[in-house]
Amino acid sequence: MATTKTQNQKAWWLVLPVVLLVAFNAVIPLMAVVNYSVQETFGNNEFFFEGVRWFEQVMTSSRFREALQRQMLFTAIVLAIEIPLGVAIALAMPRKGIGVSICLVLMAMPLLIPYNVVGAMWNIFALPDIGLMGWSLNRIGLEFNYTRQPVAAWITLVAMDVWHWTSLVVLLTFAGLSAIPDAYYQAARIDGASRWAIFRHIQLPKLKHVLLIAVLLRFMDSFMIYTEAVVLTGGGPGNATTVLSIDLVKIALGQFDLGPAAAMSLIYFLIILLLSWLFYTVMTKDDEA
Questions:
Q1: Torsion over CA of 220, 224, 228 and 234, rounded to 10 degrees?
Q2: CATH code of residue 132
Q3: How far apart are CA 235 and CA 117, in angstroms?
Q4: Domain range holding 82?
Q5: Which of 115, 146, 173, 238 could form a disulfide with 227 if both were Cys (CB 3.0 to 4.6 A apart)?
Q6: Are residues 164 and 228 in the same domain?
Q7: Are residues 287 and 230 in the same domain?
Q8: Residue 22: which of 30, 12, 13 has the closest Cα?
């Protein structure tokens, strides 16, 4: 005799507060941005429909393309440094004893510092006259002034991001390494495998999904960097470090062009969404086969 199983729907009441919170913090502001992106206002609460004019203006703007190029260059540089460096540090960390706790605490410390404090710290640290980094580089004969030299500003910005966020890659990688059973290492030792062979054939395949998370998190964070960069360089010198987020704030708050700023923010969001999807698709392609 067939029996029908009744489902308890009361659990949805527990989810409802979260749904309402997400709607308030994400959906409603997003709809406001969409509304501004297709309208023009001259004050007095008067709006005029503009269609896709602002989107066309942003997409054909050399200012937007240059900011996007700077943003993609910055993201590519920090990913190329932080992912391999984070994996290397995690591999060098001890697996047992009190050294594990010490290393984990040291790695977690940069992640606990607020973004604006990180920018202020490196702002002082890299000053050519009184900053330890800037003063030391000038002392050994290297002319370094990130407030005037675009290359120095880029070096400082990248160094700050690497110092702040490599720890995240380290912690994720260390967690992935800790989850690998000892049986794999025992079999490798019996076969006489080298450290490189162990990394290539055991550790790296097991870290694939962990590294996917690390790459996606660091890509999205670096592509949306704002607070640290604006405190450190303010987008300067000139526009040398004016990435998309800084340029967007300048348009929205500095120039108070709400229509173009809203259109740019939506394009910004779609670029991040598309590139994140491409990263995920490429890195999980073998799993679907």
A1: 150
A2: 1.10.3720.10
A3: 17
A4: 69-242
A5: 115
A6: yes
A7: no
A8: 30
Amino acid at 223: F
Report yes or no on whether pTM surpasses 0.85. Answer: yes
- Whether 200 and 100 share a structural domain: yes
Tens of each residue's pLDDT in the chain, 289 residues: 455 566 667 777 888 888 888 777 878 888 888 888 888 877 677 778 888 899 999 999 999 999 999 999 999 999 999 999 999 999 999 988 898 899 999 999 999 999 999 999 999 999 998 899 999 999 999 899 999 999 999 999 999 999 999 999 999 999 999 999 989 989 988 888 889 999 999 999 999 889 989 999 999 999 999 999 999 998 989 899 999 999 999 998 888 888 899 999 999 999 999 988 888 888 777 665 5
List the structure tokens of 270.
């779609």
Distance separating alpha carbons of residues 155 and 142, to the nearest angstrom: 13
HSE-up (13 A, CA, CB side) for residue 100: 8
Residues 229 and 181 in one domain: yes
